[in-house]
């Protein structure tokens, strides 16, 4: 039976991560809390807006209302990677070879490991940013589509058009697909080999959480009474295929999803604070946490694949030990 170690904080939890095996909880006020032989914390920003986990370097990349981009590593190690002045850093991403990317207004910037920065200015504001899994390439979510840049070269950007406001962005782990969340209740995708469109609609709510399964066979999403899990096997991705609906609860909505690091299982968080795990193959469910005080907004698995750090919009946080 799973056990839960609670951590009651005050404020909206934006992200959770395990750094050096220690669970961290990043709140919207800019303070990152951790459970490391007791409750400790680091004041990182004056208002936190965005985070990204850098798995290669076991660090959390953060962007704030104070115009700073920081990296928080294990043992409370903090490095300020960029200071942009009185501009909000609305999106950050971690890339290969220690590179990071961040967005302020209409500008997407890539900072290489040697400290050099390359800026890409867009006609409208940058709403999301992500690195491709292979090579030095970033994707930017914007109004009416997405743009691909190749920061290490002077090559012309690739424009992917689709009407509407695109608010977030992710590449499939194999680099074959690009998917964006939208202001409307839908996802949109492109097959990068030929630009073919993939429209994933029918959600009753906005999709605010996405998670790829191991090897990228499935893409789990929030925004419905169940976790909507799209199949990305075969050359056409999810087109013409029905998604899985895991963990259906008629009186609740899924607000956060986090796929298991090595198995086809997804942790599903709901707007009433409940968390379950569901297996793709047979849709079997296991209750991990009973309902709490607020909607689940963040979840992360540890490297040993037995613990999940979770956070909610009300600061109702904790760690679930799957093994009990």
UniProtKB/TrEMBL annotation:
Q: Name one Pfam family in it.
A: ANAPC4_WD40
Q: Which PANTHER family match?
A: F-BOX AND WD REPEAT DOMAIN CONTAINING 7, WD40 REPEAT PROTEIN
Name of the protein this chain belongs to: Anaphase-promoting complex subunit 4-like WD40 domain-containing protein
For this UniProt record, give its keywords in alphabetical order, as a comma-separated list.
Repeat, WD repeat
Q: Where are the transmembrane segments?
A: none
Domain (Anaphase-promoting complex subunit 4-like WD40) ranges:
261-322
Q: Does the keyword Heme apply?
A: no
Concerning InterPro entries, the annotation shows: Apc4-like_WD40_dom (IPR024977), Quinoprotein_ADH-like_sf (IPR011047), WD40/YVTN_repeat-like_dom_sf (IPR015943), WD40_rpt (IPR001680)
Q: Which organism is it from?
A: Pseudaminobacter soli
For whether the record's keyword set contains Repeat, the answer is: yes
SUPFAM superfamilies associated with the record: Quinoprotein alcohol dehydrogenase-like
């Amino acid at each position: 039976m799973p056990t839960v170690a609670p951590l009651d904080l005050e404020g909206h939890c934006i992200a959770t991560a395990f750094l050096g095996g220690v669970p961290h909880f990043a709140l919207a006020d800019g303070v990152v809390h951790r459970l490391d032989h007791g409750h400790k914390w680091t004041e990182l920003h004056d208002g936190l807006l965005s985070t990204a986990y850098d798995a290669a370097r076991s660090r959390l990349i953060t962007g704030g209302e104070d115009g700073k981009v920081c990296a928080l590593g294990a043992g409370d190690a903090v490095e300020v990677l960029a200071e942009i002045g009185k501009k909000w850093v609305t999106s950050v991403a971690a890339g290969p070879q220690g590179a990071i990317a961040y967005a302020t207004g209409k500008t997407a910037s890539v900072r290489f490991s040697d400290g050099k920065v390359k800026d890409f200015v867009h006609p409208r504001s940058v709403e999301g940013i992500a690195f491709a899994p292979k090579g030095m390439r970033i994707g930017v979510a914007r109004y009416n589509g997405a743009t691909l840049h190749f920061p290490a070269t002077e090559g012309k950007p690739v424009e992917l058009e689709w009407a509407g406001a695109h608010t977030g962005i992710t590449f499939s782990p194999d680099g074959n697909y690009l998917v964006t969340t939208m202001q409307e209740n839908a996802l949109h995708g492109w097959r990068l080999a030929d630009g073919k469109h993939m429209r994933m609609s029918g959600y009753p709510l906005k999709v605010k959480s996405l998670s790829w399964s191991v090897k990228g066979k499935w893409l789990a999403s929030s925004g419905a009474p169940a976790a909507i899990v799209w199949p990305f096997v075969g050359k056409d991705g999810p087109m013409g295929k029905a998604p899985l609906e895991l963990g259906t609860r008629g009186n609740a909505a899924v607000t956060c999803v986090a796929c298991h690091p090595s198995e086809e299982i997804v942790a599903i968080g709901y707007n009433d604070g409940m968390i379950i795990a569901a297996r793709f193959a047979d849709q079997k469910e296991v209750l991990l946490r009973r309902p709490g005080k607020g909607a689940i907004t963040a979840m992360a698995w540890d490297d040993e694949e037995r613990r999940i750090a979770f956070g909610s919009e009300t600061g109702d946080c904790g760690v679930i030990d799957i093994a009990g």
